[in-house]
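A protein record pairs a chain with a discrete description of its three-dimensional fold. The shape at a given residue is found from the number at the same position. Here is what such a record looks like in full:
>
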Amino acid sequence: MMKTVPVEDAVGMVLCHDITQITPGDFKGRAFKKGHIIQQEDIPKLLDLGKRQIFVWELSEGFIHENDAAMRMATAAAGPGISLSEPKEGKVSLSAQAAGLLKINVAALNAINEVDQAMFATLHSNQKVTEGKTVAGTRIIPLVIEEAKISRIEGICQENYPVIEVKPFKPCIAGIVTTGSEVFYRRIEDKFGPVLFSKFSAFSCSVLKQIFVPDSVDMISESILTLLEQGAELIAVTGGMSVDPDDVTPAGIRAAGGRIVTYGAPTLPGAMFLLAYIGTVPVIGLPGCVMYHKTTIFDLMLPRILAGEVLTRQDIISLGHGGLCANCQECRYPDCGFGKGI
């Protein structure tokens, strides 16, 4: 409830408007901001500013201030890997404690935003974030809100915990099988290997070995099994992913015992992507676009694999909305819409 009260009686109440301080020739600016909870030590300064009566919100029973509301919402939604800021002008920011994969429970987020006078905004789910990156922010719309609404939001978060988290990456030992008779017989230089070494290194993954094979189902299969025996925790098979008769990478992965999750993905670049598992080890077939496009399906899948996710066909299908790379002149992935269709 808004009312006018004497300054001396306003301790503990919420200021409804900014109060400006003017010192001629020296300063003009805000002395107290809207939403400030008036303290006993504020009284002399308010009187010095000529404020004997002020407009305030009285925190009636059952209502809470915007700062307290934002902190409660942020605390309830935050899961592992998330840090909270102090409330500032009624808003609390949520940041990544370390590099990892951002995960947002979108259904729960929508339920929170259905609560009148409250809001929660996040980045898209399933993207790589760096340490300290702001991933979400929350506040209420008015200066005060019914506590029952915040309790409802806390209940939504409890039922869907965590609403927001950052999963840490788990560096792995990767193996690479590079297919193609033209590379195997050194008619052309391998361009795939350096790209993969660089991308794996960015996630602190080591490469056990890169094996070169011609377009042979048996040799591709044998190379995959060799890498598994030597301890590879992720295997990338490059090339041979199109529909040409001599592109036999998918057959080689199947021959090694690969359980195919998908051969093909609704993304450009990266439509000919293959994902399989041999036991718990992911085996990915990478199309040629990974060599020359800065961002492809590989950049969408690798963070999720390294965060420990076991991907399904539905995960791949859901990439379609947002799966078209805009090929910006200066790539700014992951701060763009590629692969983030929700």
Notes: The first helix runs from residue 43 to 48. The mean pLDDT is 92. The CA atoms of residues 11 and 42 lie 8 Å apart. The chain has three domains: 2-57, 63-166, 173-317.
